[in-house]
From TrEMBL:
Protein name per the record: histidine kinase
Residue spans crossing the bilayer: 163-186
UniProt keywords, alphabetically: Kinase, Membrane, Phosphoprotein, Transferase, Transmembrane, Transmembrane helix
Places the protein is found: Membrane
EC number, UniProt record: 2.7.13.3
Protein source organism: Noviherbaspirillum denitrificans
InterPro entries documented for this protein: 2CSK_N, HATPase_C_sf, HATPase_dom, His_kinase_dom, HisK_dim/P_dom, HisK_dim/P_sf, Sig_transdc_His_kin-like_C, TCS_sensor_his_kinase
Taxonomic superkingdom: Bacteria
Enzyme class (EC, first level): transferase
Matches recorded under PANTHER family: SENSOR HISTIDINE KINASE TRCS, SENSOR HISTIDINE KINASE YKOH
Length: 458
């Protein structure tokens, strides 16, 4: 029996644990990115901003009064040095109190909201470039002069990108490693439950042994103990059912056999017409006894009995010999040639169940084979090393479309005139399933049927 592997999207314990652990970690990674970005941008931004304000205040110190009017002491060499950055474009503008340009780029406008004495840093665009500019207002004797110094943001962006990568990449690797460790940890942590599940799935319905507690996690131990308690209670209930069936079989068989004997004796003392009626009554009693026996045998051998049965190592050829003698008289009375071909075939199984299986195979074969036909029972080993037992007859055969249905309870082949109960092959199927054996039926629609039961190697 293989464990079932349902493909449904049910929420397993593993999926729940991984969801509760992995999703917060993934969310933490996503939420940490803005903070990492701000941490990466702030230091470099502040450093470059300080450089901008230093340059702006330095330019402001070069403003002086000449003939009572503001002027700028900015030789070309100094201006060239200020604009000498290798990465960014740099711009400057110095405005007199009346707003006219003293020096620099006329299209570099100051920040009008900047207060005197405190440099202001703002973002803007100039000539299609994004710029960062510092505006500084200085009070002179002639009034408030304004200095603006700006540069493009290339080196800022490059530095910020490098710092951001240096900060985020380790975080990503760390969270990825954490995700992997969480997944591995959950998988390893649930392995005892996986083994327990496989143990339960692989169990036969007839295995009454309790589930092992040695490797069960403490959290799952109450559940396993409850299951063991349930197994024990089911075993007790099934044992009680088996005792009832055994007692019922004995209690019913004895009076029915006695009734049949009394009817046969009474028939011998009656005149012809009454003797025929008594004979029919005796036949009906015989059929009732046979039906009762088969119903009880089916109940004891079926999985619904849900109880273990005693297995022992046995030879099918010995079983064949033991069962043969009980059917010779029946075959002889029906003018059937009953033959046996026993060969060594070792298996492990329940003796009484296998006796029922063989008896029903032989009984069915004799019942459906016409007078003058043959029935042969065999045991042996096939080419795959499996022990088998089979019964072959020269009866009317079974149509191909009925091969599966003949193993159903109370099913009888179409056109059947035999007084069977329709339970014989159902019992064979139940016993075979309890022994994890396979049944093969070969039959032509006109003549002959062979039923083989193959058992697992021991």
């Amino acid at each position: 029996m293989k464990p079932d592997q349902p493909e449904t999207a049910q929420r397993t314990l593993r999926r729940r644990l991984l969801t509760f652990l992995l999703l917060p970690l993934a969310a933490l990674l996503v939420l940490s990115i803005p903070f990492d970005y701000e941490l990466a941008v702030a230091p470099s931004r502040d450093a470059y901003d300080y450089a901008l304000t230093d340059t702006a205040t330095e330019l402001a110190t070069r403003i002086y009064l000449r003939d009572g009017r503001p002027a700028l002491d900015l030789p070309p060499s100094v201006e060239a040095a200020i604009r000498s950055d290798m990465t960014d474009l740099e711009f400057l503008a110095v405005y007199a109190p009346d707003g006219h340009l003293l020096a620099g780029d006329a299209d570099l406008a100051p920040d009008m909201g900047c207060a005197s004495g405190n440099p202001c840093i703002t973002d803007s665009t100039l000539h299609g470039h994004r710029i960062r500019k510092a505006t500084y207002r200085k009070v002179t004797a002639a009034g408030e002069a304004t200095v603006v110094f700006a540069e493009t943001t290339r080196k800022r962006e490059h530095a910020q990108s490098r710092i951001l990568t240096a900060m985020i990449l380790p975080n990503v690797l760390l969270v990825t490693a954490a995700l992997g460790l969480v997944y591995f940890g959950v998988k390893r942590g649930l392995e005892p439950l996986d083994r327990l599940g496989k143990d339960i799935s692989m169990r036969s319905a007839t295995d009454p042994t309790p589930l092992p507690l040695a490797e069960v996690p403490a959290e799952a131990e109450p559940m396993v103990r409850a299951m063991n308690k349930l197994i024990k209670e089911l075993q007790s209930a099934a044992a009680a059912q088996q005792r009832f069936l055994a007692n019922a079989a004995h209690q019913l068989k004895t009076p029915l056999a006695g009734l049949q004997t009394q009817l046969e004796l009474a028939a011998e003392e009656l005149p012809g017409e009454y003797r025929d009626r008594m004979g029919k009554l005796s036949d009906a009693t015989s059929r009732l006894a046979h039906l009762t026996h088969q119903i009880l045998a089916l109940a004891r051998s079926g999985p619904e009995a849900n109880v273990g049965y005693e297995k022992r190592r046995m030879d099918l050829s010995t079983l064949l010999h033991a069962s043969a003698s009980s059917w010779f008289d029946t075959a002889l009375a029906a003018n059937i040639d009953l033959g046996f071909e026993p060969e060594l075939a070792m298996i492990e199984g329940s003796e009484w169940m296998l006796n029922e299986l063989l008896s029903n195979l032989i009984s069915n074969a004799i019942r459906y084979t016409p007078a003058g036909g043959t029935v042969t029972a065999r045991s042996g080993m096939d080419s795959q090393g499996q022990a088998f037992i089979e019964v072959e007859d020269t009866g009317p055969g079974i149509p191909a479309q009925e091969h599966e249905r003949v193993f159903d309870r109370f099913y009888r082949p179409s056109g059947s005139t035999s007084a069977g109960t329709g339970l014989g092959l159902a019992i064979v199927k139940e016993v075979a399933e309890r022994h994890e054996a396979t049944i093969t039926l070969r039959s032509a629609s006109s003549v002959g049927t062979c039923i083989r039961v193959c058992f697992k190697p021991v």
